[in-house]
């Protein structure tokens, strides 16, 4: 059992003055360090399994639509349990909630591995288990985020969010690449099994936590508790604004569904181009976290959120502009070879997406900080649950926007127009909301 207290020490901690990521949270709280390290290692395995399940279903069915059903089937359960997981985090010991959800995810991954070793070629168990793993991950995520402010003083929450950005960036870049190598070399069986082993790291981070019971009167898990959370959100304009701005960014600035077509008929390069474009945003987020040391000194965090999302919109519009210019480059027909790709345009497009990932990560650092610092502890789990719903649903709204618009317009239209929409809408909303614009990190109010 860890010696870490339930509440962070009250003595003021000065964030680092270095440009590089502030490692003080890892030194200040051994419990946070174990939780963060366990999440990073197990998250790599989780990303491996996400990729492996898609490849496995495709091998069984030879159908791209069948692969897409993994996300479609899991969406509604993820939304439902994102909300319910937040309720549980405000009703019980958060360490216990995270531990039970972790056991469910680990056991489901172990069953996946067993199916692979037994060479079961029926698809429905993979859909079911992938959904259960996704649901458990949402519950773990919302619970973990509600635990962090109990382990660290509020001055270190931006640094903790930046460290989380490094963790997520590493997961997204390492996990899928490792999955591809393992599936190609040793097969699905060992890929799932490696995830089962890596998941043990998550348990080490959770088990070592102290008992973390929500502050205030505990609510019975149920609809009334959810209603209380929604009522609080209506009276929390700053927190609500972070959700609104994030939905705008994710709805109009998620061009990922364009990547296959861009790689095939616009920039060329096929699957390699898709991989480069997909990894670019994650790499940008990773580097922005590494260089996040000064963010802990930003006082007016509402303005910072607005500025970061505006920059995000500019980079997305820049990506669309690259596609517009490339549409007249003379590339004709389907081009799968990277040697035949428009390499200068591909490089610039990757830079634009890396910039968007960096800006989105900076926005995420401040939005998470506002959420963790301004929301009372007894309400934090439920609001984190709503946050998980926004994070889950926003990109899928973006997929729908891009998919519908690209059916009637050139490939460059959705990102270029979407980026402009983001810049205009976010600038207008933040400028018109004085309270959010003057949100003070030294006196956080929801």
From TrEMBL:
Chain ranges passing through the membrane: 35-58, 64-84, 96-118, 124-141, 162-184, 190-210, 239-259, 265-292, 304-325, 410-430
UniProt domain Major facilitator superfamily (MFS) profile: residue ranges: 194-446
Gene Ontology cellular-component annotations: plasma membrane
Main localization category: membrane
Pfam families (UniProt xref): MFS_3
Topology in membrane: Multi-pass membrane protein
UniProt entry keywords in alphabetical sequence: Cell membrane, Membrane, Transmembrane, Transmembrane helix, Transport
Protein name: MFS transporter
Source organism of this protein record: Subtercola boreus
Lineage, broadest ranks: Bacteria, Bacillati, Actinomycetota, Actinomycetes, Micrococcales
């Amino acid at each position: 059992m860890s010696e870490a207290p339930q509440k962070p020490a009250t003595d003021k901690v000065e964030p680092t003055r270095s440009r590089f990521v502030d490692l003080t949270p890892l030194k200040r709280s051994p419990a946070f360090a174990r939780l963060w390290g366990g999440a990073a290692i197990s998250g790599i395995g989780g990303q491996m399994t996400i990729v492996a399940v898609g490849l496995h279903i495709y091998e069984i069915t030879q159908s791209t639509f069948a692969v897409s059903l993994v996300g479609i089937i899991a969406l509604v359960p993820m939304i439902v349990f994102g909300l319910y997981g937040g309720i549980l985090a405000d009703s019980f010991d958060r360490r216990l909630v995270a531990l039970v959800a972790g056991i469910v995810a680990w056991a489901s991954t172990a069953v996946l591995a067993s199916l692979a070793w037994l060479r079961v070629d029926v698809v429905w168990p993979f859909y079911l288990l992938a959904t259960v793993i996704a649901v458990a991950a949402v519950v773990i995520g919302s619970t973990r985020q509600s635990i962090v402010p109990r382990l660290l003083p509020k001055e270190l929450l931006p640094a903790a969010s930046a460290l989380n950005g490094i963790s997520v960036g590493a997961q997204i870049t390492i996990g899928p690449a490792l999955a591809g190598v393992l599936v190609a070399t040793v097969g699905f069986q060992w890929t799932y099994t490696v995830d089962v082993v890596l998941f043990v790291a998550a348990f080490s981070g959770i088990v070592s936590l102290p008992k973390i019971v929500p502050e205030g009167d505990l609510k019975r898990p149920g609809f009334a508790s959810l209603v209380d959370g929604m009522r609080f959100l209506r009276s929390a304009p700053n927190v609500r604004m972070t959700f609104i701005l994030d939905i705008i960014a994710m709805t109009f600035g998620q061009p990922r569904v364009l990547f296959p077509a861009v790689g095939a008929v616009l920039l060329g390069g096929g699957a390699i181009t898709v991989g480069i474009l997909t990894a670019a945003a994650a790499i940008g987020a990773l580097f922005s976290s590494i260089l996040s040391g000064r963010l802990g000194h930003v006082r007016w965090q509402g303005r910072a959120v607005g500025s970061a999302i505006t920059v995000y919109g500019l980079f997305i519009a820049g990506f669309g502009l690259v596609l517009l210019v490339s549409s007249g480059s003379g590339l004709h027909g389907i081009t799968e070879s990277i040697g035949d790709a428009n390499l200068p345009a591909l490089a610039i497009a990757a830079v634009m997406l890396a910039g968007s990932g960096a800006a989105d990560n900076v926005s995420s650092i401040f939005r998470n900080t506002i959420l963790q610092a301004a929301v009372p502890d007894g309400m934090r789990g439920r609001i984190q649950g709503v946050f998980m719903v926004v994070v889950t649903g926003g990109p899928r709204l973006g997929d729908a926007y891009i998919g519908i618009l690209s059916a009637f317009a050139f490939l460059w239209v959705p990102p270029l127009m979407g980026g402009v929409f983001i810049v205009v809408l976010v600038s207008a909303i933040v400028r018109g909301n004085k309270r959010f614009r003057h949100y003070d990190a030294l006196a956080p109010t929801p």
